[in-house]
Amino acid sequence: MTDTVSYSLHDGVAVITIDSPPVNAVDQVLRAGLKKVLLELRGQSAVKAIVLGCAGKTFVAGADIKEFDTGIAEPGYHEVLRLIEDSAVPVVAAVHGTALGAGTEIALACHYRVAQESARFGLPELSLGIIPGAGGTQRLPRVVPLELALDMMLSGKPLPAGKAKDAGLVDAVLEGEIVPAAIAYARELVRRGAGPRRTREQAVKGAAQASELFAAKRAQVAKTMRNRLAPLALIDALQAAAELDFDAGLKVESTLSAQLEQATEAKALRHLFYAEREVRKIPGLPREIAARPVARVGIVGSGTMGGGIAMCCVNAGLPVTLVDATQQNLDRGLATIRKNYQRSVERGSLRPEQMEQRIALITPSLDFAALADADLIIEAVFENMALKKEIFAKLDAVAKPGAILGTNTSTLDIDAIAAVTQRAPDVIGLHFFSPANVMQLLEIVQASRTAPDVLVTAMELAKRIKKTGVVAKVCYGFIGNRMMDPYGREAERCLLEGATPAEVDGALEQWGMAMGILAVYDMAGVDIGHLTRLERAHLLPKDPSFYRPSALLNQRGWIGQKAGRGYYRYDGAERKRTPDPEVIAMLAEEAQRLNIPQRHPDAREIQERCLYAMINEGALLLEEGIALRASDIDVVYTAGYGFPRYRGGPMFYADTLGLKVVYDRIVEFQKTLDPQYWQAAPLLKKLALSGSSFAQWQAEQTR
Ligand code: 3H9
Predict the structure, then answer these.
(1) Which residue's CA is the nearest one to ligand 1's atom 51?
(2) Which of 279, 440, 454, 533 could tie 639 with a disulfide, CB 3.0–4.6 Å?
């Protein structure tokens, strides 16, 4: 075993190496190791310069996130970074891979920074609900202009080495292995007699114009990062950098950091960090099961979904055969793909030749036989069981042995689809979200006969096309859409009780949802949900108010944005959503006809009803084994449904409220609203009454 921190001498230059796989995250052992080595080097007169670099695939990728749960043990960050900065001989950070969070902060405490061209520097702490707490808020604006420092921390986006050099964060971008290049750089510093250049002794760049900058950023954050603590605290810390001396600024940073680390926002975001990594592990699946090779993908259907999925594949370099029933459909599908790429080219995120390369990887065809050499075929046609069965029977006839057949159904029974083939073990659900080339989530639906290696292949595919794959079992709507049903039902029921669409969506958006559910229906098409409900009408409650507003809109052809009106009107060139008095009158009339009392639920009631209905359904999914873990549900909702990350997902949010609070309110709704509909899930009841939580339950299940 190697030491986490070691050093070696190279003719007057000491090279400190951090070696803590997989990403050199900073924990107590690493800090103690650095401290020990720095103290040892202090007394060595032969050492004229120090290079600080890392082993493995990256420089330090941040603080070890687990330490925030236990508390940061001695020696602390400030003590160790101060030792680096106080060094009497120049210290050069040698950066490869990603210097993130504490990694960038360590580099900032060094006197000079050199980097490989592919290296990147970032401070993504806000994504964890905290601010840089190892001096980053005080040191970065002394190295790069204040506004850039603030933007880097607000966006969390890493800066590539070239841009970091232009900004003053990197002194030199060097070729070849970074440590030998940094040794040569350090020797040159010694030869020139360049001594330590301590960041803390520099002036903040742009402090004079700071007050307008802070006012503008506070206003921006209030709008774009609503309900959050960390972004405002970050601006406070940078204001301290601009107005106070270094040590006083550092104290402000420490106080704010300590408050943020223990806040629910940071706990929620840490929970998601772990949940997004846990989701890749499928319990009970032996590690030795290998994925099937996937070198070519076939896609059936070149509409919005099929086209988006094709883009995901070719973006990852996977060639695609795209099949549709008519030349007209194919032409339209390919034109949309080109238009989408064109937009990226105009934005500057894609080069024109990259666009052409990607489009060239798509082979359009009208013939199912063209799918014969595909290793994976994804069906992405209209949500209709008869059509899907017909397609799967055809695929069964043309696909090569061992090819995986995936369906992009969002609600249908995949076992029934698999049953029309002679290869049910090769069939799996691959539920992409629209627009598929943008949305992060991929629900991977394991049907009752899906083979384990098919499941592993689907997880690998998710990783390859940069999606978050979450495994679900078969039921109506799987995880995401099944939980949307009670959520949407409550929203529509509130409409019939006298809340307007703007009040319902406003309450949900104020709470933090990216978009209110009624606006989501308008965007997706009110007809889509309505038609799905018609297909399963025999399974739905006989309540005449059930999704009645959607049915009425559908009758009138007011099916959302594509019709120019739905729950709202979308007039003018901008198609901005505006309240529609006719819809409001229609709802009031219908409520009267159905004798629904006008309670006029307020924002809080709307939020509780919609969210608790969703959480209750989540508890049912856990009991039924549809979702493997409570945290998987949180990943589905934050990655695919616009649930605010800073609330951690629906199940984590329920835990933060206390399950007893949620349960008691559901019991109250049962008494005051609807005794049939409001039934607490047995698991929720059990956990609430025993003082437990979804997190505790999950830990017990995996023990
Ligand atoms: C911070 O620095 C605060 C400071 O201001 C100081 C305050 C006092 N900690 O993602 P991957 C694990 S805040 C612990 O699959 P990739 C990860 O769990 C921190 N563990 O690899 C996984 O473990 P497993 C700021 C970490 O190649 C394994 O490493 N830093 C950490 O796709 C591989 O990770 C960040 O926010 C960590 N910090 O991506 C950076 N990072 O295999 C967060 C990773 O057991 N990390 N692990 O599941 C990342 O963005 C990506 O991991 C990275 C590599 C880009 C580095």
Answers:
(1) 61
(2) 440
Instruction: Tell me whether residue 443 is one of the annotated catalytic residues.
Output: no
Looking only at the bridges linking them, the beta strands covering 5-10 and 13-18 are antiparallel
Domains 297-474 and 481-701 share a fold: no
Ligand 1 atom having least distance to the Cα of 72: 8
Written as one letter, the residue type at 66 is K
Catalytic residue among 74, 79, 105, 509: 105
CATH-assigned architecture of domain 297-474: 3-Layer(aba) Sandwich (3.40)
Token readout for 319 is 């060639």
Interval 484-493: pLDDT, tens: 999 999 999 9
Closest protein CA for atom 20 of ligand 1: 64
Q: Which atom of ligand 1 is nearest to the CA of 125?
A: 13
Per-residue pLDDT band at 2 (split at 50, 70, 90): low
Ligand 1: residues whose CB is within 6 Å?
22-23, 25, 61-66, 77, 98, 100-102, 105, 124-125, 128, 132-134, 136, 277
CATH of 481-701, one of 1.10.1040.50, 3.40.1160.10, 3.50.30.30, 1.10.150.20: 1.10.1040.50
Task: Decide: residue 290, CB within 10 A, 0-12 exposed, 13-18 middle, 19+ buried.
Answer: exposed
**Residue with CA closest to ligand 1 atom 11:** 277
Q: Does domain 5-261 match CATH 3.20.20.30?
A: no
Q: What is the pLDDT of residues 363-390, one digit of tens each?
A: 999 999 999 999 999 999 988 899 999 9
Task: Please tell me which residue in 74, 85, 125, 624 is annotated as part of the active site.
Answer: 125
Helix-then-strand count for the chain, H and E: 30, 19
Among protein residues, the one whose CA lies closest to atom 54 of ligand 1: 23
In whole angstroms, give the CA distance from residue 576 to residue 433. 23
Does 125 qualify as catalytic in the annotation?
yes
Rounded mean pLDDT, 132-155? 98
Residue 98 Cα to ligand 1 midpoint, Å, equals: 10
Q: d(Cα 350, Cα 341) in Å, to the nearest integer?
A: 8
pLDDT tens digits along 516-558: 999 999 998 999 888 888 877 888 878 888 899 999 999 999 9
Find the helix packing angle between 517-524 and 480-496, rounded to 10°: 110
Pairing status of strand 172-174 against strand 159-160: unpaired
Instruction: Calculate how far, in angstroms, residue 355's C-alpha sits from the geometric centre of ligand 1.
Output: 31
Question: Residue 282 C-alpha to ligand 1 middle, in angstroms?
Answer: 21
- pTM, full prediction: 0.94
Phi/psi for 377 (5° steps) reads: -120, 130
**DSSP for residue 445:** E
Atom nearest to 58 CA in ligand 1: 56
